[in-house]
Amino acid sequence: MFGDFEYARAKSIGEASRLLAENTGAASVFAGGTDLLVDIRNGVRSPKLLVDIKRIGRLTHLDTDVDRGVTIGCAVPLNRVAENARLRERLSALSDAALSIATYQLRNRATIGGNLCNASPASDSIPPLLAVGATLRIEGNSGEREVPLDGFCTGVKTTCLAPGEILTEIRIPTLPPGMRTAFLKQQRIRGHDLAVVNLAGALSPADGQLRIAIGSCAPVPTLLDPIATRGHTPAAVADEAVRVAEAAVSPISDVRASAAYRSAVLPVLVRRLVARLTDANGGT
Q: Are residues 134 and 31 in the same domain?
């Protein structure tokens, strides 16, 4: 059974913010609804008002000019991200991550902003965005602000959003020519499943720095300190990446996997990621 709630379709970001602020603690943003409606059905959340934002034009905008910076509206469905040819060409980690989420039918509804705001430690879209230094535009009644994605998730299923605030855009800075990215995911079964461990990396030829982000191994997805690659063999880079990763996260046991299993899988995936990014035929 679904809960008893009212529904309002906001015509602007300002209207949506006002409705959320006036109903603090009792209202939820409704975009794709693929997580929200499940939580309502299971009694995890019981909002009294759903504020629909998916018809607000600016929130469905997708600008993929990677030479100037990518802007993704929070209400852009995941399939638009997964299937965008320009993103596939220059930012394959994000395309692959979006493609790994749920089923095709659900990705037509589920939004990238919803995946971020759900703030799951196992989110697939967050690691590739962390690896390329994404920032988030947040708007509310008190104005707007921009925060680094690395500071957005504050804990399991919690974010830095204040009452009445809405995540409106994901902004990816200009990608250096030749930057390579990759995404890897370990899950229990083939097809649709949450990650046991996921990670993404971005290797920039401009500064020789490798940036790796890891999910499902800590309360929030974790961005590692940059790893230098110039003057080092791929094997040495992989060794250093494993050392940094193991020092940064402390996997726990849950219904999907034990801490021991995650700890065993993590270095394997890190080495595969480094190999893909440093191989002449891997990553994009």
A: no
Q: How far is CA 27 from CA 49, 52, 157, in A?
A: 5, 11, 16
pLDDT tens profile 113-132: 999 999 999 999 999 999 99
- At residue 46, the 3 state secondary structure works out as coil
Question: Does residue 283 form part of some domain?
Answer: no
> Which residues does residue 208 pair with via DSSP β-bridges, in sequence order?
none
Over the Cα atoms of the chain, what is R_g? 19
CA atoms 78, 84, 86, 92: torsion sign: positive
Is residue 1 one of the residues assigned to a domain?
A: no
CA distances from 182 to 28, 88, 93, 95 (A): 33, 11, 4, 10
**Least confident span in 2-6, 45-49, 139-143:** 2-6
Number of domains comprising the chain: 3
Q: Helices (DSSP H) in 4-158: which residue ranges? A: 13-22, 36-41, 78-83, 85-90, 92-99, 104-107, 112-117, 126-131
pTM of structure: 0.94
Residue 136 lies in a domain: yes
Residue 212 domain boundaries: 180-278
Give 39 or 282, the one with higher predicted confidence: 39
Is the model's pLDDT at 35 over the cut of 60? yes
